[in-house]
Amino acid sequence: MANYNLLEERALLARTVAEEGIVLLKNENNVLPLSSEKVAVFGRSQIDTIKCGTGSAYCESEYMVDILTGLEKAGVNVDGELASQYRAFCAENPLTALGVWGTGAHINPEMPMTKDTVKMAAQRTDAAIVVFGRTAGENDDIIVTEGDYMLSFDEKKLLERVCRYFKKIIVVVNSGNLIDFDFSTNNKVNAVVLLNLPGMEGGNALANVLTGKVTPSGKLTDTIAKTYDDYPSASYFGKKSGIIQNYYEDIFVGYRYFETFENAKERVLYPFGFGLSYTQFDIKCTNFECDKTVDGDIRVTVSVKNIGDTYAGKEVVMLYSSSPAGKLGTPKYELRAFAKTSLLAPGAEETLTLTYKISDMMSFDDTGVLGTKDAWVMDQGTYTVSLGNNVRTLTAVGTFENPEYTVFKTCVHMPTELDKRLTASGEMEELETLPIDLEAGIPVDAFNVTTIEAEQHYGREGNRTVYRLHVASTGVYTVIMKAKNAMPASVVLNRFPVADPERFFTEKGDETVLNLGTIEYVFTSEEGTEAPLVELTLIKDDAPVEISATEPSYVQAGRYTECGLWVANRPFFDEEGVLTHGRALSRMHSPGRYAQYKLDVKKAGKYDVRLRFSNKHEALDLHDTFSFFISNVTQDIEHVVLEHTTDDEREPVYVTTKPFSIVLPKGETFFKIVSKSFKTPITSYLEFVPSKRRSGVKKKSTVQEDTKVAENANPIVRRALPEAIGEMDFRRVMNGTLSMDDFVNSLSDSELAVLSCGNAEGWIGYIPEKGIPEAYWSDGPVGLRQPFKVTVYPSSTMVSATWNTALSKEYGRAIAHEAKLYNVDVWLAPAMNIHRDPCCGRNFEYHSEDPYITAKIVSGMVEGCQEYDLAATIKHFAANSTEYQRLRSNSRLSARAFREIYAKAFEIV
């Protein structure tokens, strides 16, 4: 057994996991593995290879083998001239700091690449490798736009030029999230490799796979659709839906959706479980055994033979079940068991036995359509078992006949706020929902028109009437007010008087900006008269601001489509400005606060941007005050001064900055302002003008914030405990002379509270008078997040892509060994939420769209940790599928979806 106290052993495991987790998606004409050809490598992620995502999961590694270095070490004949150009570019254009979680770039700016450079590289070499890199993380979902979910303008142009001049093209995607893989349908792209986030040995692992030293055996744990809109959650995920996340697709997540509905089946690019090899396997069911009763098992014996003649390899076999068609409605296929072979040489054969319980095929009936409400049941009928190596290669191998409707267990009723859900018929089913919570506010829909009847007020007393609303999504709304009795004398929104309220009491109403969360409109009539009754209609305006290709364009800074907590908009009046009135951006005075705007850019290119602002502080440097992002790509800007203009924020004096340059892509894009300071101005509007001047940007050498760590480990030092002074001492529990029950019963409420909550210093517990030491924890799940360099392993998704439970257990053992070196007792991992949507920023921390493989891989990790006394904390329980407004998000789902999909893995582990 490996000694994971040694870095060399941990590094070997990290490389092995990455090798088995690499997924080969395309390999036309067997362009892979590489042989002796000379290769040109494009894309800065060959050097700035992304080892892990951002947020609490970010760890700084003891070293990092990038893709280019890995290829060179493996003896690949890499084009040195192009490699030198990339190394020089990356040195001169270092990565910008991560900063506050959720404010980092998802893509790193690419080296400018002329067609002549590509053409000359093609003349020197035989093949091209193009690397695309993406990152995301905690508090930071990705966006469906160019340079984030989709390829950037520069990436598209690069690939287009490579396809023009090269005959052999391999694309490597180094990303913790799925991106738009439409480029893989290009006939000139011969091979596509999904590297995910491979940890510190990523470059070596990829090189071993590309050269054939290791035959790829990774399989997808998610479905890759043709476009983002093909995913069932696409219309109402993340910021689109706001803080109310409606799980309308219900149990039809991932392949459960794509394989059930014929029109969806056509929209799959790469199916769940898919992954190519350099060899071929023959998979045969040699025996099927099925017990006769629902409390029995299904056992399938499978023969797997390597029928290739060159490469050794590993194969994964999977069992799926199909339930009888009935009233309840179920997915076409559901994963029930899987196994991975050992390394099989050409001609070698291995026999595997896959087993699962018949009761695993039960479904949860939350409405009682089969007879029993809130129960785990199996309908009467035929259950089919199918075998294959992905969800599209299945062959039926046996059946189980359930002679009668069976109820296994009834559960506590779980009410829902979800009003409808998708069913197996393709129709939406109306659900019985909880009544509207007037205390929280009447929900304001992020997509449709919301009408609040005059009688739906929160309170009415004297001459005042209060309407409480719950806004799901920040943005511009058209608000139409209709007085049902007398016209109000005044209107107040969240304690601030509404200027000229008459404008809302018209047929078309008027626009205002509403922040998400609970808001209150207060209508007051003249003293001594009846309190007003007002009907409110709210319509969200998602139209982008047009940025002209020829004329100046203006964006009111307070008309954002999204903002951070506590950010506000306020009216501005500015007689000397181009815009004399509107909504200004304020309360940005805390690092990480942000405002985001949707733009429709008519022509790609460089634009000069000027801010109209009022500043009560001393003169500020714009570069040190705000960061600017275009679709989550950091923009380098010139040093522009924000001069002092007023001493009183209540009496703003607006002036305009000198210009700074940014580059905008054509079409819909997102412009984001992020605060870097506790001192910020009020911004009334931004001016965008097509630029004709040279940028004055000076590059600054910056480093990732999280790399400011010690080179060598500095283990935690535990505090000493005094000698035992009484009978009720925890050390007596440990030596078996006192029962845990008696000890716990002796603790006071305050002592129990100490044991049940943590602190900012990374420990829990410590009651010395009772002999209880502190327990120290560390974030995960790609390693042990510490203020020094540690071993960084592949992402959770990549671990699951191995489909190797023995390897995941070894992963847990290695984490536990390393934890002991640092005196860490609790690992805040593994994370095991479901990949409901490809845009969740923390998907790299999670495993799959399927709860079964999630549970089996995580179970291996937890067992490995527990073998060496490291406590694992499975998280984030449950239905935590988006990072958008994560501290305020409300996931609305049915009891069936919760129990069958989102809580299932937690239950199994």
What do these coordinates show?
The protein is built from 17 helices and 51 strands. With 909 residues, the chain is of the alpha+beta class. Strands 1-6-5-4-2-3 form a six-stranded mixed sheet, sandwiched between helices. Strands 22, 24, 25, 27, 28 and 30 form a six-stranded mixed sheet that branches. Strands 32, 34, 37, 40, 41 and 45 form a six-stranded mixed sheet that branches.
Sequence-ordered SSE layout with sheet pairings:
Layout: H1 7-21, E1 23-27, E2 38-42, H2 67-73, E3 77-78, H3 80-92, H4 115-124, E4 127-134, H5 153-165, E5 169-175, E6 191-194, H6 202-210, E7 224-225, E8 244-246, H7 255-258, H8 262-265, E9 268-270, E10 281-290, E11 297-306, E12 316-322, E13 334-340, E14 349-357, E15 363-365, E16 375-378, E17 381-388, E18 395-402, E19 406-410, E20 420-422, E21 428-430, E22 442-444, E23 450-452, E24 459-461, E25 464-471, E26 475-483, E27 490-493, E28 496-497, E29 510-514, E30 517-524, E31 534-541, E32 545-547, E33 553-556, E34 562-563, E35 568-573, E36 581-586, E37 594-601, E38 605-614, E39 620-621, H9 622-625, E40 626-630, E41 633-634, E42 641-642, E43 655-656, E44 660-664, E45 667-675, E46 682-690, H10 730-734, H11 740-745, H12 749-755, E47 763-767, E48 772-779, H13 796-800, H14 805-822, E49 826-828, H15 851-867, E50 871-872, E51 890-892, H16 895-902, H17 904-908
Parallel strand pairs: 2-3, 2-4, 4-5, 5-6, 8-51, 22-25, 32-37, 48-49, 49-50
Antiparallel strand pairs: 1-6, 7-9, 10-11, 11-14, 12-13, 12-17, 15-16, 16-19, 17-18, 20-21, 23-31, 24-25, 25-30, 26-29, 26-31, 27-28, 27-30, 33-46, 34-37, 35-36, 37-45, 38-43, 38-44, 38-46, 39-42, 40-41, 40-45, 47-48
